Amino acid sequence: MPDLYDVAAIGNAIVDVIAPADDAFLAANQLDKGAMMLVDSERSAALYGKMAKGVETSGGSAGNTIAGVASFGGKAAYLGKVANDKLGETFTAEMRAIGAHFDPVPLVGGPATAVSMINVTPDAQRTMCTFLGASVQFTDDDVVPAVIESAKIVYLEGYLFDAEPARKAFAKAAAIARSSGRMLALTLSDGFVVDRHRAGLLAFIETQVDLVFANEVEICSLFETSHFDEAMREITARAKLAAVTRSEKGSTIVTNAETFHVPAYPVEKVVDTTGAGDQYAAGFMFGLARGRSLIDCARLGSLAAAEVISHYGPRPQISLQALATEKGL
User: Which CATH class is domain 5-13+61-85+135-326?
Assistant: First the structure.
C-alpha cells in the first residue's frame, strides 16, 4: 500500500465552544479547574447558556492534531464519529476544508454530535465539560483498513479509552497497523483518563504502541509517582519512543538508548492552552513522517504549541508550514 498519508488519526469528533471565564464562574458552576469532566446533554446545554460569548470550532484532540499536520503541509486523514445533524455537517466540512481526508458514516437516530464546553481563565488554564454524544459510538466497523494501511503513522486519542466499542476499534487499528508495518502512536490525553484506565493503557503501550505522547501530569499519573525522573525511567523501559511535554520547561524525548531535552518555544503571552499538546504531537509526527531528527521533531512540536497557545482556539490560525520556514525549521 502506498504512503498516501503522513498521519491518520482516530479520535472523538467534537465541536469546541471556547469562552473566557474567571474562578468565580468555575466555583459557581461546580467546575474543577483544569479538569476534563464528562457531562450529559442537559448539563452541557445548561452550561452553554451561562458561558460568555466565545469561539465555536471543530475540535477534539486528534482532530486538532490532524489540523496541525495539514497546516504543516502534511497529508492527513481522520476517523471519527459524528451524528447526522448540523454540527456533524459542520465538523465534516471543516475537516475537509483544511485538506484532511474525512469520510464518516454519520450516526442516525442516536445521540447528537459531541460538544465540549471549554472555559479559559486569565491564567490560560482550560476547564472542559464534554458531552461525548455520537463520538463514543465509534466502533471497529468505522475503522477503514485502507486508511490505516496507507498512513506512515497511525495516531490514537487516549480519550477514546472511555468507551468499550472504541477500545475494540483501537485493537483493530493496531492490528492493521502492525500487519502493514506502520508506526502506532498513542496520546494519553488526560490525567483523569489515565486514572480510569491505567492497567489497560499500560498493557496497550507495552504490546502495541511505538510512540507515546504525554504531558508531565499524565506520565506521572500513569506510573503513580510524583517524581518526573522516575516516570521517565518507567516509560523508557516500556515504550520504543516517548515525547513528554512539560509546559514552559519544554519537552523530553526518550528512546531505549537516548534522552533529549528540547526547550519550549518562547511565547510573548499565553492566552489559552487548549490544543497545546495536540499541536505538539502534530509537529512531532509531521517531522517524523518526513524523516527529520528527533530533536527537529520536538522543535516543530514546540513551535506549533507556541502558536496555538498565543490565541483562543485549539487549531493554528496561521500556516505552520510558513512559520516553520520563517524560523528556519
Answer: alpha beta
At residue 3, what is the residue type? D
What are the tens digits of pLDDT across the range 257-303? 999 999 999 999 999 888 999 999 999 999 999 999 999 999 999 99
Distance CA 118, CA 126 (A): 6
Residue 1 pLDDT: 63
Q: Are strands 183-187 and 36-38 parallel, antiparallel or unpaired?
A: unpaired
Residue ranges of the domains in the chain?
Answer: 5-13+61-85+135-326
Neighbours of 45 (CB within 10 A): 13
Which range has the worst mean pLDDT, 120-129, 215-224, 291-300?
120-129
Contact 89, 118 (CB under 8 A): no
**Strand order from edge to edge, sheet including 55-59:** 36-38, 126-131, 114-120, 14-20, 55-59
Of all residues in the chain, what percent carry a pLDDT higher than 90?
78
- Kindly indicate the confidence band of residue 141, based on its pLDDT and cuts at 50, 70 and 90: very high
Distances (CA, A) of 63 to 86, 93, 280: 18, 13, 13
CB atoms within 10 A of CB 303: 21
Q: Which three cell numbers stand for residue 267?
A: 511565547
Q: Are strands 55-59 and 14-20 parallel, antiparallel or unpaired?
A: antiparallel
**Has residue 319 got a pLDDT over 70?**
yes
Instruction: Tell which phi-psi region holds residue 228, choosing left (phi > 0), alpha (psi between -120 and 50) or beta.
Output: alpha
Rounded Cα gap, residues 89 and 34, in angstroms: 30
Listed residue (59, 73, 63, 61) closest to 6, CA to CA = 73
Is the confidence at residue 57, as pLDDT, over 90? no
Angle, CA of 77, 260 and 274, to the nearest 5°: 45
